[in-house]
Specification:
This protein has 389 residues and is of the alpha/beta class. The protein has a domain at 2-126 and 179-214 and 301-326 and 347-388: Alpha/Beta hydrolase fold, catalytic domain (Rossmann fold), CATH 3.40.50. The protein is built from 14 helices and 6 strands. The chain has helices at 21-24, 38-42, 58-73, 91-101, 127-145, 154-158, 162-176, 193-199, 217-230, 250-257, 265-268, 286-313, 366-383, 385-388, and strands at 2-4, 31-33, 85-89, 111-115, 207-212, 318-323. Strands 2-1-3-4-5-6 form a 6-stranded parallel beta sheet, with helices on both faces. 40% of the residues are buried.
Length: 389
């Protein structure tokens, strides 16, 4: 099994998942790969065009290089190169979708697990837009850094000081897209993921795909954390709900999440969609819970369901899941003493299933440990799926 970590293609790392012993103990050989992120992984400046005319997606090429390594070397670790499962969460799940769509990944894996990776398919840029956006990013970064090149070519970009790349270029890149996704570069992806699946040209392998019941609660929580940290002095009292998402901001939040659908925030607050009254009796927490519900549906759950439907229509084996543990230990919202200070419970939020798959922390009680045992068993079953078909 080859793990691809998440982090919005901009952050995270393989080291977080270094302890895969829970899967290894079940007879699975686990490869945890690293790949370039941010501008180093996904900038597509025209000066960097390859001889074949393609540009960008270097982070995905790193992943493909790792999959080739597995094909060439995994036998030395008692692995079977003909039984490779790729799995990833968030940007890692989107990466799995990219490999399912990429002609360069065909034959490098035999099963796929997509965890919360069905998002942002409508944000994939075509090559011309990628190059235009990347040109603006580079120009802004060089102005901010006060550096120039006689000719803005590949040598110039590769010769930029490390500090400029780590600071001004990263800032300009994040300003243009805080959460980039692989573009249609003409090589790694000749068409968008959506177009590739619609045409039936994706890799036909068994797929397990799903999401978490409260995915978007993580992002609502991060927003509240930012407001608490910005207060003078910073406020870490969970009973103080003044830092929660407000009912005044609720319609705009829903409208932003629904951008492109033609639905307004006011419409989405109606009884048929996400009325505040559907989210408990505490009026101060209703906007946070309602926005979490809608963000979960729009960004992750509905997209994941569409993936399953598309794979099923193609005749490939597909399984779906929803992670629902409301007692899952949260990753954010703790002060330096380990006290939880946010106003609402995040429940089964984005990425919170990973502690049941990898050895990330003490799960603290037998119920969670039992769930972890079952979770790992199910993932191992997918690894064996082709032998049962």
């Amino acid at each position: 099994m080859v793990w691809i970590h998440g982090g919005a293609f901009n952050t995270g790392g393989a080291v977080t998942y270094a302890d895969a012993s829970p899967l290894v103990s079940k007879g699975v050989i686990v490869v945890v790969l690293a790949y370039r992120m941010g501008p180093l992984g996904f900038l597509g400046h025209p000066a960097l065009r390859a001889a074949d005319g393609s540009v960008g997606n270097y982070g995905i090429m790193d992943q493909q290089a790792a999959l080739h390594w597995v094909q060439d070397n995994i036998a030395a670790f008692a692995g079977d190169k003909n039984n490779v499962t790729i799995f990833g969460e968030s940007a890692g799940g989107f990466s799995v979708m990219t490999h399912l769509a990429s002609p360069l990944s065909k034959g490098l894996f035999h099963k796929a697990i997509v965890e919360s990776g069905g998002y942002a398919f409508d944000r994939q840029l075509k090559q011309d837009m990628l190059e235009a956006t990347s040109t603006t990013v580079v120009n802004n970064a060089m102005v901010a850094a006060g550096v120039t090149c006689a000719t803005l070519d590949a040598a110039c970009l590769r010769g930029l000081p490390t500090a400029v790349v780590a600071n001004q270029l990263a800032v300009a890149f994040n300003t243009a897209s805080a959460s980039p996704v692989p573009a249609v570069d003409g090589k790694v992806l000749t068409r968008s993921i959506k177009e590739t699946f619609a045409a039936g040209d994706n890799s036909k392998v068994p797929v397990l795909n799903g999401s978490n019941e409260d995915e978007y609660a993580l992002f609502i929580a991060i927003g509240e954390m930012g407001r608490r940290a910005a207060a003078m002095p910073p406020n870490f009292d969970p009973t103080n709900t003044s830092f929660s998402l407000t009912s005044t901001a609720y319609p705009a939040t829903l409208g932003g999440l629904a951008a492109g659908t033609g639905l307004t925030g006011a419409t989405l607050m109606s009884d048929g969609y996400y009325p505040l009254t559907a989210y408990g009796a505490n009026a101060a927490l209703q906007p946070s819970l309602g926005a979490s519900a809608m963000g979960t549906d729009v960004v992750f759950a509905c997209q994941g369901l569409n993936i399953a439907k598309r794979v099923l229509a193609q005749g490939s084996p597909v399984w779906s899941y929803e992670f629902r543990d409301q007692t899952a230990l949260p990753s954010v919202g703790f002060d330096t003493s380990g006290n939880y200070y946010l106003s609402f419970s995040q429940g089964a939020a984005h990425s919170y299933e990973l502690q049941y798959l990898f050895n990330l922390r003490d799960l603290q009680n037998d119920e969670r440990r039992a769930l972890a045992t079952e979770w790992r068993r199910q993932w191992k079953c997918v690894r064996k799926a082709h032998r049962r078909l």
